[in-house]
Amino acid sequence: MDIWTLLSGVVAIFFAYRLYTVLGRREGHMEAPTPPEEVAKTGDAGRMPGLRPAFEGPAAAGLEAIAAADTRFDPNAFVEGARSAYTMIVEAFSAGDRKTLEPLLAAKVLDRYTTAIDQRADRGETVRTEIERIRSAEITEAGLDNETARIKVRFVAEIATETRDADAVVIAGDLGHLSTVTEDWMFERRTDTGNPNWVLTRVAAV
After folding, report:
1. What is the average pLDDT across 88-94?
2. Which domains does the chain have, with CATH numbers?
């Protein structure tokens, strides 16, 4: 899961900050609740004013729990942020950019990623990966446990990767060949603090 990147440190930090402020947050102003007298006038008594539709799908109960703990949580905004996180993390890992990875990964995941980066550097290897497209990103599980929100997203992406040795000889992969990669990424954040950051806690191939 590697990708060539030209992101500078300043640009990476900027986009990381934007990711934090977008992931799982509603933007703009919410529609004001309809006054009871207006509901009576329009006959729209079947809908409680100011309430959003219930979540649907296999993760609905977990999303409801998270939304109850964080009233600004929006799963659609979360998925958009998760797609950005996927690209940023894959690019940073490929480039060996620890600075970008640090705020995006849980400690145990960061340890594994930095160990792999160090081992690759010791061998003199470089990796270039190109994400052709993220075909889908879907929430498959969600839950809230002791104020920790967890959301699993299944990504399906078309990726090409290539590894070269210290002499720039290709030793693995082929940038001319796209592979379909399916992975489950687990994100977590505390809902009982003012910190809006979600971090990646687990990646599993499907």
Report:
1. 95
2. 9-26+54-205 (3.10.450.240)
Average pLDDT over residues 43-48: 43
Both ends of the chain: CA-CA distance in Å?
13
For 81, 84, 87, the CA distances from 150, given in Å and listed in that order, are: 15, 18, 20
C-alpha dist (Å) from residue 28 to 25, 31, 147, 198: 10, 10, 26, 21
The first and second tokens of residue 116, run together, are 């792999």
pTM: 0.75
Is 21 or 117 the better-scoring residue by pLDDT?
117
Which band of pLDDT confidence, cut at 50, 70 and 90, is reported for residue 27?
Answer: very low
Per the structure block, which two tokens stand in for 139? 């929430």
C-beta separation of 155 from 86 below 8 A? yes
Euclidean distance between CA atoms 189 and 20, whole angstroms: 11
Ranges assigned E (strand) in the chain: 126-145, 148-164, 170-173, 179-190, 199-205
The Cα 173–Cα 128 span in angstroms is: 9
Positive or negative CA dihedral for 100, 12, 90, 4? Answer: negative
